[in-house]
Amino acid sequence: MSAQLAGEPDAGSPAGPAAGAATGRGVGQWAFFVGRKLLRLVVSLLILVTATFIMVHLIPGDPVLAALGDQATPQLIALRRHELGLDLSLPAQYFHYLQGVVTGDFGRSIVTDAPVSQLLATKFPNTLGLAIPAFVLVVLIALPDGLLTAIRTRGGRGRVTRTLFVNITGLLNSIPDYVLATLLSLIFVVAIKAFPAAGNGTAASYVLPVAALVVGPAASLSRIVRVEALKVLDAEYIRAAKARRLPTLLRYWRHVLPNMLTASLTFGGMILAGLIAGTVLVENVFGWPGVGTVIAQAVIQKDYPLIQGILLVLGATVLILNMIVDFVLGVLDPRSRMGAH
Amino acid sequence: MTEVARKPRRFPLSTAIPLALLLLFVFLSIAGPWLWGTDAETSNVAVADQGISSAHWMGTDDLGRDVLARTLVATRSSLVLAVLATIVGGCAGVALGLLSAVSRRLGRLIDGAIGLLLAFPALLLAIFFAVLFGIGSVGSVLAVGAAFAPGFARITQTLTASVISKEYVEASRVLGKRPLYLTFRHILPNIGEPVILYSTIHIGTAVLALSGLSFLGLGVQPPSYDWGRLLNEGLTRIYTNPGVGIAPSIAIVLAGLTFNMVGERLSDILGGRTAAPPKLPSKQRGLDPAPARAETTGTTGELVEVRNLRVVYHTVDGVTTPVRDVSFSIAPGEKVGIVGESGSGKSMTASAVARLIDTPGRVEARTLRFLDADLLGHGTEVDRHLGRNMSVVFQDPGEALNPAIKIGTHLVEPSVIHQREPKPAARRKAIKALGSVAISDPARRFRQHQHELSGGMKQRVCIAIGLMGEARLIIADEPTTALDVTVQRQILRLINDIGEMTGAGLLFISHDIAVVSELCDRILVMYAGFVVEEARTADVFTSPAHPYTAMLLAASPDMDTDKSRQLPTIDGRMPGPGVDLPGCYFAARCPRADVTCTESAPPLRTLAEGHRVACWHPLTGAGAAGDDELTGVEAKI
Amino acid sequence: MANLSVENLRVRYGAATVVRGVSFDVADGSVVGLVGESGSGKTTVARAVVGLAGSSGAIRIGETDLNACSARQARRVRRKVQLVFQDSRSSLDPRFTVEQCVLEGIDRSEFRRRADASRRVAELLEMVSLDPGLARSRPGNLSGGQRQRVAIARALAARPDVLIADEVTASLDVSVQAVVINLLRELQAELGLTMVFISHNFALVRYMCDDLAVLFNGRIVEHGSVDEVISAPEHPYTRSLLAAIPEVGRRRLLSDSAAEATAIGDRPAVGGCDYRLRCPVGPVAHADREICRTDDPVTEAGGRLHQAGCHFAHRKDGAGVPA
Q1: Which of A211, B214, C51, C173 is the most buried (most CB within 10 A)?
Q2: Predicted structure pTM score
Q3: With contact defined as beta carbons under 8 Å apart, do A134 and A181 qualify?
Q4: Residue numbers of A between 9 and 28 with CB closer than 8 Å to C
């Protein structure tokens, strides 16, 4: 039935009028695609905001009491409750919260009373400063590595290469970033003293945290790239390209690479999102002044406005990244624009 | 793990290592606290903060407790929590996934929620849920479980959707079975295996995630401890004693790795069980390595010459020979068809002539020649020659055109490369070629992608590619099988017209003898990797000599078949490519077979001008009379 | 036994209507063939009749209209209509044994003891000429022909009145196809099954069927007895299908071009006759035939009369006056 369902878009229809219709439809298709993705982002952000709002209200007990501890005077507690708007009705609180988020006001930390937005403004760029170089490195390593291994191991050849690749990437993928960070710091900071132990003062201080972040994702992405590349290498159109006797390099460059980008990019987006979360742990090892060092402390201290603020920023970053990936895919692969969702 | 137990004799390293590690971890979680519990929990300030020594292999912590003992004891809590988290996440996820796949109304909502949750990294979700469920062991198990649930839900959903659309589920529905029956009889058993595999790998991930939470101080709280907690406590002291960092790190990595390996190995074993072809004897008759070149000299002038072609596949599972012995030639401008059922080796033969057999396949032949190029040789010169003079049309035009590049590029590329034509000229030529295969508005089609064209159009494009060079041979491998009859007719005509226009020879492969007979001058019938009969088209259906050819003709009804009679059939199956028989491969199914047939292989002998057959008892021709004449014919070859 | 009667059947998939008003009758114990290109809606008709696709219009088995009766009654009657699928590889659960597959079709309330049900399975396997010794094997170990016979046995296990065979031999080699076709013919005659035989292969349909309906773009464009339709096809679409059948030793595909227009499109036209863009007797070849652009010639009437939905159906050259 698939043939009937899929139909045959614009198959052999009369040329003149259809050509005009096609360009008109192209623009409309793009607008529809972009609009749909933007709508999706807005809805997702709204859900994210709502989730962080509900989080505080789902926690058993009084968050202010929990944060300030038993010694706090009732006056202080009442004051904080008022400051946080917890004495209002729930819908009113939600409205306030939404209003605050939209205007960039995430409230004040219960513990330090500092504005959360200010804290985020100083810390979050440091987190991105780790994640983005790490991502670039991951892609630069994984793409050629996965592709070359796929070429060397296609059709059951290169069994040694395959075994080595699968086992090494499997091992690297099993080392969590925080463990690797600890080990790296043991070797290069404690034993060799080649790099600074903490902080982000110098360029050298980037080396270890970025390395700790890169290894795992690079291993897993190159596995994915290899699998995708093997799929493409097996495709009939690659055989057809071979039947046209196209030179090997051209075949890989122009026929294989574009076809594996879609899947690789989708996973790449997920990996970048994972890197942003991964920094949380690595920052703690290297005392990196990003949001990661803040969030663990905030959770332990039950500093809810701060937790909300950090989760919102990290979550929103992830959602926006996803949308960017979708847009890039839309540009690269016309079929993904027409796809259902 | 039952699969491992079932195959005690084959115990390769790839199975033994994960299995041994798994057993080690199971042992440690059971016996660890019992064996090293006291070392791990008794404080002794006198030996606090010691480095690595023979008494304390990994040193001691700030209270003088042995780090190694603590790491070993923590195996239980770390693994138990990981398994629990996986179970929580697995159950919630599988339930959600099933629900969304089965229920139509709830499905969309759950699907949206899963999609949104999957966008977030698991650690971020885990932190969110840790805030919700509170800090501590229970909280972190629930948090990690909740963070895993979307992944489980999605995999369940995908698997279920694929099972539900299978025709055996539909057949069940037609038989009136209810959703609950379908879920328990068809869906769960068929998705169970992959879900369990996914869970196994996820136990490893859960170890990492829980340790991560503990490392942040959000997981297990003192005085309890797991590996993450140990690492957290040790981090500040790695300057005095590296052991406090090394021991839990190794434990975490090893545990993650173990479950990963176990999962992958399981999936290999289970996947292999369902997919592996039956093992077959690997002994194969070889060709006698006679001097090859001497024979080729007398037969110049042929477009293609194939003598004793064999295609062999050497794989882990043994040796198979899809093409056993094929000889034929094509004269310039001649249209030759190969007919056979699936497994006859017809497509492989075409691939060998097109030089498209890839490793682990190997092509052997006494002669394999196209024009003056030896196809058994190597070198880019041969490729350039083929690129210019040979064109290949594949079965499924939708698969044969690259979805990522424009129609035009497919045509322009070979021309630029093989004929060194400048791009604008190649472009003009390509648009002309598209026009000459009756594609309307070729300039617009040139810029389109393959998904914008219908099946017939795509096949026209594939044929047009052949017009870019000076094709002397067109190889068409089932080019109309994926198309409707009316389109098939157009494509057959097109192929014929192009042959006539360019004077190119044709090698046309099909399972349908009627299609081949419409187009070709000469027909080769293939069976089990052999050419069993070769004749001019008219002779094939007026006087088929091989019993198999006769059967092939009779078994398929045509528009004149007598409706009151049964269709003739032949029992049995074609021997597979791994089977090695001494005699005729058709003997077991042949009504005329006798002892000779099962004992010695019939050579391809000439019956009449242009009519050859590989049969000891052919239906027609000189060989039909008796053995004396048979030997006579054989001697002539 | 009962007859099958379909009236004004419509099936929508999302925004697309893939079956657009199909009506036909299958008399008790007779075989009707449905032919058409891929995308013509023949498989969807089958799926709608057995309830795998939601539809509107009437589907009558005997006296019961499946689209107008209670859900319970529909469930009971639906068991009497069974479908055999094209691909036997996916129509049998790989985890079931042959016995379990066939058992699925059996109404277990019919048999008090499990052993009786097993005996019935063995009977059914013999009925489709399969060795009952295969009962314990799994579909993966059977050949394509054997699997298709198991699928037929499962369908027969429900004691159907109506059997729908949807391209049952399309994925089989010719030597195996002959076995399955012989079997279906025997069973149909022996059990007096009412049957719908769906295929793109005209020769098979001719060999199997009494009546024939030709589908184009989700509607029946010609309907009549097999002999009439094949010997005197009226609709230009039927004629072009017949002209496109390759036949051993005829060599006519390359020469005869009367039944084909210079098609200016593969897609059905909208409004008027939806075949007109490909039609050799329509406005592409004869510019003056305005009626093809304005009036839809396909009527929704069924029946056993030989009729075709074409303004110029009665003359082979199509040079007549509008009907």
Answers
A1: B214
A2: 0.81
A3: no
A4: 11-14
* Residue A5 to residue C267, Cβ atoms within 8 A: no
Closest chain B residue to C207 measured between Cα atoms?
A: B563
CATH level 3 topology of B304-519:
Rossmann fold (3.40.50)
In this complex, the residue of A55, A244, A284 whose CB is nearest that of residue B131 is A55
In three-state secondary structure terms, B324 is strand
**Chain B nearest CA to C15, separation (Å):** 18
Helices A304-332 and A116-153 cross at an angle (nearest 10°) of: 40
Cis? peptide before C283, omega within 30° of 0: no
* Nearest C-alpha in A relative to C14: A5
> What superfamily does domain B14-270 belong to in CATH?
MetI-like (1.10.3720.10)
Kindly report, residue by residue over C118-151, the tens digit of the pLDDT.
Answer: 899 999 999 898 888 888 898 888 888 899 999 9
* CA–CA distance, B284 with C138 (Å, rounded to integer): 30
Polymer length of chain C: 323
**Is residue C139 reached through a cis peptide bond, with omega within 30 degrees of 0 on the bond before it?**
no
- Residue ranges covered by each domain of chain C: 232-307
Beta strands at B473-477 and B505-510: parallel, antiparallel or unpaired: parallel
Specify the 3-state DSSP secondary structure of A99.
helix
Side chain identity, residue A44: S
Instruction: Name the minimum distance, in Å, from the CA of C146 to any CA of chain B.
Output: 11
Q: How far is Cα C163 from Cα C42, in angstroms, rounded to an integer? A: 15
3-state secondary structure of C315: coil
Q: How many CA atoms lie within 13 A of C169 on its CB side?
A: 24
CB atoms within 10 A of CB A163: 12
CB-nearest to C264 from A1, A8, A14 is: A14
- Give me the residue spans of the domains in chain B: 14-270, 304-519, 544-635
Q: Considering only CA atoms, which of B394, B430, B397 is closest in space to residue B413?
A: B430
CB within 8 Å: A250 and B235: no
Are A4 and C263 within 8 A, CB to CB?
no
**Radius of gyration from C-alpha coordinates of chain C:** 21
Report the DSSP pairing between strands C56-61 and C211-216: unpaired
pLDDT in tens, chain C (323 residues): 578 999 999 999 878 888 988 999 999 999 999 998 888 889 999 999 998 888 999 999 988 898 888 888 888 888 899 999 988 888 999 889 999 999 998 888 888 888 888 899 999 999 898 888 888 898 888 888 899 999 999 999 999 999 999 999 888 888 889 989 999 999 999 999 999 999 988 899 999 999 999 999 899 999 899 998 998 888 888 888 888 888 887 777 777 655 454 555 566 777 788 888 888 888 777 888 888 888 888 765 544 467 778 887 765 444 444 43
Tokens 């038993």, residue located: A70
* CA A310, chain centre distance (Å): 15
